[in-house]
């Protein structure tokens, strides 16, 4: 997991103002927004007017205004003769006099002529934020080697909100030179045709939900969108003790093309396992349920060490080597080199695992303990560990069950240095149990949204909080986002409007191909009181737009995920009474009712490398294209979900897509490729394969790692004392096992509004359809069996005061 970070260092600034010029500036053409695009006008010092030297790292370099020009008498040559790391680039001067003015929400076509003697050169953009000042924006295009003058063009993404100017140029990050000339920059014209509503006014504004006619045959709590578009639904025992005792473990493969399900033999109880997609599209499934808690409360859930790989081609599971520890509820994050790192969960003895695990892509097996860096930290259950652009991991604070980790509740983990740095700003950090966190579109922006949550131990009403962090900042910190919109909540007598600060836990967040985020589902309390509310979050404006609502309850053990046709599928709901919702819903977002969809009529090559330019053809103009990593989601958690922008070079119906050179932004694997028109209408996805370690050998991602999160000021800790495990209460799931069967969850702590009396608690259980509850053993910690007849909430219990 190699990572290198450096701060961008500007070497000199020339041509600061027109008043310092020795000659009058060369004017740009009517369309061209760049001043001195051909370097013909001299500036102060040794750089042309409106151009400056920039770069970082350990390298030897020269900047030369050369007579070897494409047109006119001058061009700019940047050469590296020795390089350990870093880059050098000639940029448009970052000043009001020189940097082109841009409009947020607009796109711009950039062009230049170049010659190179190195394959390591790329068009790099910086933007001026009206609040934060100049900052790195993105790398747009890797330049192919060229011995004669060659034209390069590329279209920017939409300019982010708060941006008033941009600066750009060619960065050289390998030994050799790039000579450039005749820069151009034009604003892309607005689309001529407004969107055409093809549904009802309600559908065009808010989308539409459909409950599918065929039910999900298994109690699935894990959902993985497979390469090609089928969906793996993993149940294991499905939180059903009778299935566990019988050794009946199930999965199903759903085919959206025909609505069919195929039940798959499943070798172990993968209930509450971890899962992630490997670079070849197979699914790594780690740990699961070795045993349910005992009725006497002395032993909790136990996680086994077993691990399996599911092959989408054969639709079968194959065992891998064992992990070093048991991990019931583990994290699973794929890294830029294709390896997988995992933290947290419960061990075979039901204590908390402090062992970090590493699955080697090259060796196709879990590494022995001595090969894996360890801090001996307990990260909790399903900790949301998101890969950052420099290879570090951001723990967002989203997790499952009870309180968060000590400290601020959020942190940056540096595997290479084996250090953890706390990150501030996450509000109500101990009430983010089953919140959702997502890397916002595009991944290049490095912003994370965390929303909702509660606490199954103290059982407060779930919150409406959202917090946003910008990991591009030197000292990143969460800031408050807009509250989640309120919907209705079923408190036991049918849905009623939410009031006060009522929000939701078990919330799902799904990246959409138009660059927005769908949030849906959830519940007000631990496995009770479903919330009916769905909204679309716009990262550009940081606002929510309430839309049509899933008619089905989607609380604990529900999943939501993007299908290749642009719809969102939701499954499951497992309330505390042990029942299961087998109905499946599918949401068609408003963009599917805005007129004809663009089509990707051909993909020249489906095997992609980092830094590639890949050509597609489309049947109508498109404004953007992106890769979306297919879902592998459970318990509100999918830390690998990401939307990677593909800057365009457009020539009629031919569109060249510029693939990122940084594998940490788009880890190797299969992706859904969407093309989206100016009205936000996406194509149906095509599947492309971003190649793994073989393709990485020729790529130096360090040049594309800029000064993100390079100076966090939070408390830093290194490896702690080696230990076996973290003590975890057997009631970590928030369920008192003294009552009912194992798949029934009587809360250890009832909601705050429920009085601590037998009558009030029994009334709440009745309203939430718990039915008859047997008392397991002689203990009655909640006072539900006052007459000690072995049945909770019987008539005799309610008669006693």
UniProtKB/TrEMBL annotation:
It comes from the Bacteria. Residues 1-30 form the signal peptide. SUPFAM superfamilies: E set domains (SSF81296), Galactose oxidase, central domain (SSF50965). Residues 776-789 have a biased composition (Basic and acidic residues). Residues 249-577 form the Glyoxal oxidase N-terminal domain. It holds the Pfam family GO-like_E_set. This is Galactose oxidase-like domain-containing protein. It comes from Streptomyces violaceochromogenes.
